[in-house]
Amino acid sequence: MSPDGAPARAIIPVMPDPPAPPEAVAPLVRGIEVLRTLTDAGGTLSPGDLQRATGLARSTVDRVVATLSAMGYLRLDRRDAVLTPRVMELGNAYLAAIGLPRLLGPRVHALADDLDESVSLAVPDGDGVRFIQHATRRRALSVTFGVGDLLPAERTAIGPLTAVDWTAGDWERWRARRAADPRDEGFPAVSAREPSDLDFERRVDLARANGWSLDDQLVEPGLIAVAVPIPSTHAIASVVSHTSRHSEDSARETLLPRLRAAVAGMADDLRGAGPAAESAPVGLAAWTSVSKHELGRDFIESLARGLTVLTAFGEGRAELPLNAVASATGLARATARRALITLEHLGYIESSERLYRPTARVLALGFPALSRATLAQIAHPHLTALSGRVRDSASLAILVGDDVQYTARAATSRIMNVEITIGTRFPAYATAMGRVLLAHRADRAEWLDRAELRPLTPHTLTDRARLAEALDRVLVEDHAVVDEELELGLRSIAVPVRDREGTVVAAVNVAMHSGRGQVGAVLPELRSAAAEIEADLHVAGRFGSVAPG
Prior knowledge:
single chain, Beta-Lactamase, 17 strands
């Protein structure tokens, strides 16, 4: 199963790479192969499945999994290895380095709002196209491609525009791939299809002549898309709709002019943008200075250090010389050099004139499996761990109108337990999570004036002045405790969950019988779990929005 509960696609063995140069770091090659295989399988595989898919020895797989787990890039869930949002820091480094999501994201979302259609930015990656930005319209029939997804160039509107610059060697590699994988089974983001004559070369000629391209149900039945290149970049902007809303003619006549106008605005934004302020590298890892003994005998230092090299890049650090990479990561120059050689061989780094830069392929390490993860999915493993530590149920909720709605939950197996299901809603004023969320509500004063405060138990706080004092106290203490106000015998303790901008977007609680457990013992564990959820949320939400659940 994939992280979102959908059946995982059949595992496609990773295509063998060309022979590695003598200086390549073999453990780094093997570790990336495991990450790539896990990503293509939806983010979850057992070590046995990883062994079969990669062809690596079981002992090697176990050591790679142990290393990636120590780095926080995956967790062990029973017998499965599961990718975690922390691995997205690798792709985030690439996205920050190219700067396009930051500079053009507002235009992408504005166009999506204007057209009420999905809008994307994509860049070439070999003979495919990889998404770097996506604004989705949520409908019963909606586009589900996410950041990091790789699509075959010939089945998109974007592909012909990237192929106008292909060399004879690029076309030869494309034909070889089509012959080896005629059903596109090596592209997990799209459904496998029967081989067909797509007349791709004719579509490329048209794209070269017209300066735009159109896809009528090639990527997926029912989807139609139009694409335009963004000047002075390798990026392509596209609008994707459904055939129930647009035909090929209306896409050309209605969507294309507005897409072109938006792309012209994007070009203006890029011309007017000054140099990006340099941000601090995120990859200075503990294992660059911690001893092998402390990390354990199964920890593969060369794998950890090699992946850390990818995080040397970022805003204001789009391309770096070797010395800067070594300095940013805390690695020895020789170690950084071998890692760069390996990553360049695998296609995750490119170089010219002794300057190195990351490629879009870095997004293949985790992003396709995780870029659509919801806050509820991000929170669930942390709630499970919290519930196990405190031996009481733990939940995450958001504010919906005047109610709190449960979106994630981990229950205990006690004889006396709090039974609440996902989707349950309670009046916010009578719950601990509700008070945390209400305390940070922008229109709190107006809400207090109009709220209907009914006594749910003899202990429910219904006096507006006292409730206002309770909400003020939440802001000071950064937590809320509600005892028997929602239900007799029920006590709840809650703390906020904040996004990257510091906005409270959810609350986490521990619920227990009022005669069991002390606030002072539970609160530190609750705060720790909330901090872990926030850390994952901040990585996952750096270049995209994270849906609540």
